[in-house]
Structures
1.
Amino acid sequence: MKTSAVFSAALSLLSSLSLVSAASSSSESSSSTILPSTFKPAPVFKNTNLVHIISVEKNFVKENINAVIENVAKTPQNAYYLPFTSDQISRLGGVEVKDRKDSSAPPFVAEVVEFDKESDVQYLRIQLAKPLAPGAQQTIGITYYLLKAYSPLPATMKQEETQFLTYSFSAYAPSVYNTLKQKTEVKFPSSNFPDYTKLPGTGDITEFPQKQGSKLTYGPFGEVAAGSVQPITVRFEFNKPVTHVARLERDVEVSHWGGNVAFEERYELYHRGANLSSLFNRVKWQQSQYYQPNTYALKELKFPLRVGSADAYYTDVIGNVSTSRFRSNKREALLEIKPRYPLFGGWKYPFTIGWNSDAKNFVRTTPAGGYVLSVPFLEGPKQIEGVEYEQVELRVILPEGAENVKYHTSIPSQSITSANVEIHKTFLDTIGRTALIIKARNLVDDFRDRDLVVSYEVPLAASLRKPLVIFVSTLAVFVAVWAVGTLDLNFASSKKK
């Protein structure tokens, strides 16, 4: 998308009623809605047809549930519930629900509802765009991600061996409603999945699952009662890093006077794959790179940045890391980094990267005299195996005196935990800079292209405050130096009589 098109879309978003204001200093948390402890979803729907697609192709699980739902109650209904275990809820993120027959319609609101903290079953409530009439049907598509979903098997291995992971789920899609017909498809990163649960087939199919290349299919199943579970475990080859970012702190600092936007990202990264069964052998590692380049160790990360990015740097707890390469031209900007050592399962690596960019690539003025900033909510490394983020804190540091701050992002609202405005103090500030702080959880790199649009205003007095303070301070220093220079510090000599 061209830059002008991005900002046109940004202005359109900012003028819409769905814009979320973050001008107050209080946190806007998207915490669970509280319901009575005796809550149980009423059987007001049935799934006439359902297809459950599970993808384990990356180091996080992506699930899609496409269902034709029908209102079996006598009154219109607009709340559809999806059950999860309490453990799954803690790892659930990126929930998006759409009308499968109207791609232009906005996503439905999906939120976690809390009714009993001690219960192992929790619910995700989906608000339909409009109540569904009795007997009417609607086709919905539910997409969500589960982090920290795999277990390596074997749990320990040699550094030159092939890594295998396991994942457990139910052959029946999670549902609190009866389902008349359904099937579950599992997609793997390769055709090497030696172990998986087998079930008796139905009709002409003698056994489930059916294997087709890198995919397994359980079903189709006939009518399945609400809440039914059929445990399944699969074991598959995943000879790539299981990259998990426990915490990402991302700063975006806007300078009007400098005409610059500075980015800095601080990572707390883990490899959640199989641990080494013996000490790491550097010599064997170097030898293996010539004849066996495919490894489950993490040895490099690639960060595609916006065109025009410059002055990239890469540091860790020791200091500057020289094993990096930055390429920037009119077509691309790419930062490639190599950690000081290859990361194997159970290893941790904290590091920091940063870069600068021209403010004209991200900031535009509005007809009313305000400003609109459009930046990616999440950038980070782009890896074939994917990257998952458990906690993300994004700080947008605006010019000093910025006010009337508002934001909009297409990141699923269920993943945003809080948003507030604070004061950030740094060098040469008088009252401190306005900072929009957004916290999110359980994100994946599938969202790395989603934009964050921030609108704000900077009064003329506020924009002139810093240069005036610097001018007055500098003038005061010169006056002080001049005053000191005029003092006569010589002692008068006394004549002897």
Note: Residues 460-486 form the longest helix (27 residues).
2.
Amino acid sequence: MSLDLPAKGCRETPVLKERGQREVFCGLTSIVWLHRKMQDAFFLVVGSRTCAHLLQAAAGVMIFAEPRFGTAILEEKDLAGLADANTELDREVARLLERRPDIRQLFLVGSCPSEVIKLDLHRAAERLSAIHAPHVRVLNFTGSGIETTFTQGEDACLAAMVPSLPATQARELLVVGALPDVVEDQMVDLLAKLGIGPVRILPAHRSAETPAVGPNTVFALVQPFLGDTHAALVRRGARHIPAPFPFGEEGTTAWLRAVADEFGVSRDHFEAVTTAPRARAQKAVAAHAETLRDKTLFFFPDSQLEIPLARFLARECGMRPLEVGTPYLHKELVGPDLDLLPEGPVLSEGQDVELQLDRQAAAAPDLTVCGLGLANPLEARGFTTKWAIELVFTPVHFYEQAGDLAGLFSRPLRRKALLKGGAA
């Protein structure tokens, strides 16, 4: 497999760096997918009633099972530092673990910076871990929307886990990033057919499956927003396999090829394993590319998926990105995608929302990818939008989801065409 590189990619394109008013979703929402992934973990958000309402609204109502997240609500006097919040937190944790003996990992999730809640959750986690060991391991991370975008909650969670992962000298592949179970199973099956293993996953479904890490560990990321986790694994001695992210047929093939090269898989065997799923993915994407081809595209910064998705939409769907905004541009992670992204779009990092709204209006794109807070106002102005959050909650990785990924972008355009035709 050889990649048809553009004459000039975007790795060296100057980046417009903006530091102003942002429009982002809270990092606490990462708990919605993490608590489903880690079956014996519990996420206890330490914060206000507002945080509790946000989680309930984001996660919906759990009817058939008690959810594995909750909120330790700090009243106003706690937020002001006038009460001993540590004593109350210890009491809440003890009650929770008595009621839920199945919990093996407990995450204390800060909803605000420690300067606001007047509570050092890192020390609290160390104290509680010592009290409840070895049955329960207590860790902490921040999901504060003041400090993070919504996908960074996962990064903070996984990075918090890395220092306590067991040590190993074994040569193993560690795949890093939460995927829906069906997508993870497809990935593991492809790697097994290529003869690659053993394969470990972070985050694991259960604490007993927690991966080990050491100097012979090589790791591949499946999410582009895991910069802190990447750095934490490198500090543990693991080595990163750089690759485009597995979105679409081309991205998936390039990701698998990078891993296969690391493990000495022959070209012939690689082609034998991937030819059929590649053909299915190409056919599925082609059905949507008819709608997307030559349409212009504008990304507001939201999920950190923007650069790999722009690469997929430009190269496999024929779209023309005008601006690709991302909250953080980590070239060590998305550099291979930048190499494949054809020259042309503005690359922006961070956000000054008013300035970017002005640029979007001047560009007048056919499709705008943005957060929930901007979508309705832009639709009211006549622009067609795609909610960025759907790209995180929908299975979109690897071959079998390539058509679904393209469909997320083609549907708003088809809907607009149908509505325009009906009005006519």
Note: The CA atoms of residues 171 and 316 lie 35 Å apart.
3.
Amino acid sequence: MGFKEFVKRRSLKAPDHKRTKAAELTLRESLYPICLVTVLFFLWGFSYGLLDTLNKHFQNTLGITRARSSGLQAAYFGAYPFASLGHANWILRHYGYRATFIWGLCLYGVGAFIAIPCILAHSFAGFCIAIFVIGNGLGSLETAANPYITVCGPPKYAEIRINISQAFNGIGTVVAPVLGSYVFFTFSDAEAIRNVQWVYIAIGIFVFLLAIVFFMSTIPEITDADMAYQATETHANADDKPFWKQYRLFHAAFAQFCYTGAQVAIAGYFINYVRDTQPTSDDPTAARLLAGAQGTFAAGRFIGVIIMKYIRPRWVFLAFLTSCIVFIAPSITQWEWKGVSLLYVTLFFESICFPTIVALGMRGLGRHTKRGSGWIVGGVVGGACVPPLTGVAADIHHSTALAMVVPLCFFVAAESYALAVNFVPAYRDPADAFSTTEVGLRDGPPSIDEESGVVVADEKGAANVEQKS
């Protein structure tokens, strides 16, 4: 194979008006691309878990308040809308998924290397800037990875697929606090800072190598025509409306804002909660307890997937989000081990909420899927807004436990979407249409474009794409 042929095969631009076989991949055909993209879920789970541990570490080493330490979460999650509604969404819509994956990994690597001199200089503001760059990288990855996982493979199993992939996100959130408990809290401050530096060097090197793997890999590119085809085949028919009339999508984005904000606030102040309610605990013990809580979070995703095999995902989502409200409420007043146990159970039920909001919110968007993904992922900015409010409440009342009323309120707001998707027909019907489709479970005769060799859309799918605004 010559150089020109090599470059042509590695092209990062996919024609959106052509339908590929990606929308009809069987479980076996979709296995490799899903496994490769699942590695990305582990990466941002690890990064997120590391952030929760660093939150308490910087409170100790730099003598900053709980409210100010939430600047890490604000920088990290505040970057998401810039990616999901800005640069990453533009790359996704004009080039494709593989290009967005590579772009996000490169930003992640750059942010990791920027963090190193900031850590050595003990600059909290500089580290927040580095985290903002990392957040842009991870926001880019999430903008592409979530819709890719939901569309790549049989639509019937979209919620199950994304929850399995997101379970590796949960594993990352377990590994990071365990690492932090031994690397950050069992050494002197000077040694701990050096250890943090090496962690970010390793992250930077790994993500740049992974970007090369994505460039060299041949994975199916999912186009607007593919997604319009799925919407037509499942009879969800939601993409025939203009984008700004996709009210289900915007409600899902609102739910994502509220849910993510509550989740991040609980995890970000978990160590503080343990220290406030268990005065005999030290930071390493609290960090290991956080790792255990994140372990229940990861386990919840695997168990949720099993339940979804037998019960509609929308019902499972309603039950889990309602349970978050039921168990976080008493943790406000029930201290010591009882309060910590309640947070463990809350994290278990948080597990499937984020990916299920993504999957249900994108049901039937068809040609609007790429733009819609940006809005739902942009809802993650709640993680930048709710933790500072929680930190302020904790500082005012000198109690992290009482501050848990803040995430409780946001869980209640997110519940509005869980109720709508189960009891409002305009929400429920598209979700159920995808749950019963046979696309990807049976073989159909594809139509091949003779000039390009690409599988093209049928007349109805092509008509949908031509309407693209």
Note: Strands lie at 447-448, 455-456.
